[in-house]
Amino acid sequence: MIKIERLTKTFGDTTVLHNIDLTIATGETVTIIGPSGSGKSTLLNCLNLLVTPDEGSVTIGEAFYQAPKLSKKTRLTIRRQSAMVFQNYNLFANLTVEANVTEALVTVYRWSKATATQRALELLNDVGLRDKAKLYPHQLSGGQKQRIAIARALAIKPNVILFDEPTSALDPELVTEVLHVIQSVVKQKITAIIVTHELAFARDVSDRVVLMADGQIVEHNTTAAFFDHPQHERTKQFLAAFS
User: Fold this and answer.
1) Of the candidates 221, 196, 176, 175, which has an alpha carbon nearest to the alpha carbon of residue 35?
2) Cβ atoms 38, 214 nearer than 8 A
3) pLDDT digits over 38-87, tens only?
4) In angstroms, how far is the first alpha carbon of the chain from the final one?
5) Rounded to whole angstroms, how far apart are CA atoms 74 and 70?
6) How many structural domains compose the chain?
7) What is the chain's alpha carbon radius of gyration, rounded to the nearest angstrom?
8) Measured between alpha carbons, how far is 107 from 86 in angstroms, rounded to an integer?
9) For the purposes of burial, counting CB atoms within 10 Å of the CB of 113, is it exposed (0-12), middle (13-18) or buried (19 or more)?
10) Locate the ABC transporter domain: which residues (predicted)?
């Protein structure tokens, strides 16, 4: 489903991503962990072209781009392959919960309002928030906002769903409810990349785990091998610090 080759991104004098190579199979859940500033979020942003890489190529499904020259059509095609859940929700404050979920379906994908509403209510039911459909984001808790953001991401039926530290902005008591929803999503075998600091969660839901540091992939392996038999000293130090 995803093939990343020699992906490089520099901001000023700082190389944030350096020759990243990674392949992810259809239906696979891959978790990316690592210290702050290691390039994890930038990698996700490059996948849906919120950030344009300086070099390298990305394939998502049947869509392909070669950096850095990308046409408007290529950008649109790539962006339609994936949906992203941000750490700070990115909900439209002036729209109801229901409208937040239907907005892209109606304005971008040209669904009828009735069909989009039906889809939204089904997804809100899945995340346990159908009764909040007519409320506005400011009336919700942080955990509820993130569950709405997940429903919105799923609405477009993406080939890939990207989670960028989805619990980092939440109070500790709200983290579990969001992790449960994400776990239910990955059980549907939607191809997923999750950037997180929740290592116990990563161990529970991932097929493979990737450690990034200093803009590079230090180690990636199956989940059991990664946690039980890390190969690199940097990985051992990172896991020891978090444990």
Assistant:
1) 196
2) yes
3) 999 999 999 999 999 999 999 999 899 999 989 999 999 999 999 999 99
4) 32
5) 6
6) 1
7) 18
8) 21
9) exposed
10) 2-239
Angstrom CA distances, 136 to 10, 86, 144, 167, stand at 38, 18, 11, 20
Dig out the tokens for 141 from the structure. Answer: 């808790």
Residue with tokens 């994400």, as numbered in its chain: 182
Alpha carbons 58 and 68: distance in angstroms, whole number: 11
| One-letter identity of residue 190 | I
CA dihedral 232, 233, 239, 243 (to 10 degrees): 150
The 3-class secondary structure across the chain, one letter per residue, is CEEEEEEEEEECCEEEEEEEEEEECCCCEEEEECCCCCCHHHHHHHHCCCCCCCEEEEEECCEEEECCCCCHHHHHHHHCCEEEECCCCCCCCCCCHHHHHHHHHHHCCCCCHHHHHHHHHHHHHHCCCHHHCCCCHHHCCHHHHHHHHHHHHHHCCCCEEEEECCCCCCCHHHHHHHHHHHHHHHCCCCEEEEECCCHHHHHHHCCEEEEEECCEEEEEEEHHHHHHCCCCHHHHHHHHHHC
Examine residue 53 and say whether the peptide bond preceding it is cis (omega within 30 degrees of 0).
Answer: no
Whether 119 contacts 151, CB under 8 Å: no
Q: Read off the tokens for 17.
A: 């991503």
Cβ atoms of 146 and 166 closer than 8 Å: yes
Q: Are 79 and 162 in contact (CB under 8 A)?
A: no
In the chain, which stretches have pLDDT less than 70? Answer: 243
- Domain assignment of residue 32, given as a range: 2-242
**pLDDT number for residue 16:** 96
